[in-house]
C-alpha cells in the first residue's frame, strides 16, 4: 500500500507541476477562439473554434485519439490499398532521413485513420502512448486541432507547433502535415511527421515541413500515373507555384485526367474532362497544328520549372512528381537544356 501511495504522490506532483501551464493554455484557447475575427485571420484559431462550436470539445480534456477495431482497421487499409502501395517507397525514403531524429511518420486516409507508420523502435512506447500509431484516428473531431485533422479539413499543408494544438494533452507535440490528392484532385489522405523532442525549434522544423510537402506531391504523381496506365503524362503551365500540374492524354491527345493544379489553371472539372476535350484546345494555344500547341506548352512548362530550380534536374523532377529519367527523356524530346 505504501508503494502504491508513493506512486500516486509522484503522479500528483507531476500533475501539479504541469497544471498551471495546462490551465493557461486552456484559458488562452477559450479566450482567443470566442472571437470570430481572430478565427477569420488564423487557420489555427479557426480550428480551435470548430473544435468548440462544431465538435463540442474542451481544451482541458485529457483526450487521446480513438483506435479502430481490428476489423475496421483492415477495412480501412483495403479501401486505401492504392494509396498505401504508392506511398510505401516515399515513407521509407523519408524515414531514412528523419527516423533516427525522434520523428514519427504517419500515412492516413481522408478520415484521419493512420494506415501506415514509420518510427524508430526505441521511440515506440512514447509514440504509442501519444496515439501516434497505426489504427488511431487523428481527425479534428477525435483529437481537436492537430496536423493531420486540420490539414484534412483545410485541404492544405499545415504546421501545428506545440501549444497550437487544441488539447492541453497534445501541447508537447510538433506536427507537420500535407494532404494527398487523388487523380481527380480530391483529398484522399495525408502525410504527417510528428515529434515530441524538446530541442526542436520552428526553424529546424521548416526543413521537415518541406520534405513532407515534396513527398506528398510525389505520392500524388504516383497516384495520377496509377489511375491512367498507358496514358501520356503532359506537364502543363500552371500559376500555382510548385504544385503538381499534369494532364493525362490518350493516343489521340484527348484529355483523360488532370491534377488539382492543372484543373485550376485550365478551368477543368469532371464534366469537362468526360467530354473528351482535345488537349491543345484545353491549353488555349493559338496555332493551327494541335500537336505543336501541346508540345510547345509542355516545353514551356519544363523550362519554367528548370528555371525555378536553377537547372537542378533532381529538384525539377521532384517538383513535377516524375522520375529523373522521365524528365531527361522529356528534355531530350523537346530539346530543353
Précis, in short:
The strands form two sheets. A five-stranded antiparallel sheet has the order 2-1-5-4-3, sandwiched between helices. Helix 1 (2-33) packs across helix 3 (43-53), helix 5 packs antiparallel against helix 9 and helix 14 (313-320) packs across helix 15. It has 15 helices and eight strands.
For the structure shown, list the relevant keywords.
337 residues; Beta-Lactamase; 52% helix; disordered N terminus; 2 domains; three-stranded antiparallel β-sheet; five-stranded antiparallel β-sheet; single chain
* CATH fold-level topology of the largest domain: Beta-Lactamase
- From the N-terminal CA to the C-terminal CA, the straight-line distance is 78 Å
CATH superfamily of the largest domain: GAF domain
Task: Give the overall form.
Answer: elongated
Overall structural domain count: 2
Radius of gyration, CA atoms, in whole angstroms: 23 Å
DSSP, total strands = 8
Sheet with most strands: strand arrangement: 2-1-5-4-3
Low-confidence stretches: 1-15, 285-291
This entry's quaternary arrangement is single chain
Specify the structural class. Answer: alpha+beta
Strand proportion: 5-15%
Number of helices: 15
Protein name: Putative transcriptional regulatory protein, Fis family
InterPro entries: GAF, GAF-like_dom_sf, Homeodomain-like_sf, HTH_Fis
Domain DNA binding HTH: 294-334
Pfam families: GAF, HTH_8
